[in-house]
Design a protein that fits this description.
The structure is a single chain. By secondary structure, the protein is mainly β. It has one domain (about 15-135): Beta Barrel (OB fold (Dihydrolipoamide Acetyltransferase, E2P)), CATH 2.40.50.840. Helix content is about 5%, strand content about 35%. It has one helix and eight strands. It has one helix at about 15-25; strands at about 30, 40, 55-60, 60-70, 85-90, 95-100, 115-125, 130-135. The protein is globular and about 45 Å long.
Length: about 140
């Protein structure tokens, strides 16, 4: 791995299981055992019913682009990546994640709202793997 110069997530007891699942390339999201809602971002209470009974659950890693922007003028460490796509992805399980849509060069403008996507795992350091998404081609 090369030296990674972009910001990295900070792990804490609530978020660590999410980051551990990404490192293992088996994404897990919290699911409320009381109301059956999937929850993202990781937290201590269900935002739907306030239950503390959130269980880490494997999910498909598939979804659809809810909205997006193509970044042409990027700040600092992200300049070399421009143009790139930042999107909100609605996972099949019902929660929404913000991430990048990758594998769309040379035309990031080809990414569209509603496009089906699937997770890819970007191992950026020994300890950190980031979730990215790519268009589903099959």
């Amino acid at each position: 791995m090369t030296d990674y110069i972009k910001p990295l997530p900070k792990f804490d007891p609530v978020t660590a299981p999410f980051w551990d699942s990404l490192k293992a390339e088996k994404i897990e999201i919290q699911c409320c055992e009381d109301c059956a809602s999937y929850v993202f971002y990781p937290r201590a209470l269900c935002p739907h019913c306030s239950s503390r009974r959130l269980k880490w659950t494997p999910v498909s890693g598939r979804g659809r682009v809810y909205t997006l922007t193509v970044v042409h003028k990027a700040p600092g460490a992200f300049q070399a990546d421009a143009p790139y796509v930042v999107a909100l992805v609605d996972l099949e399980e019902g929660c929404r994640m913000m991430s990048n849509i990758v594998d769309v060069a040379p035309d990031p403008e080809a990414v569209k709202i509603g496009m089906p996507v699937e997770i890819v795992y970007e191992h950026v350091t020994e300890a950190v793997t980031l979730p990215k998404f790519r268009p589903v081609t099959r």
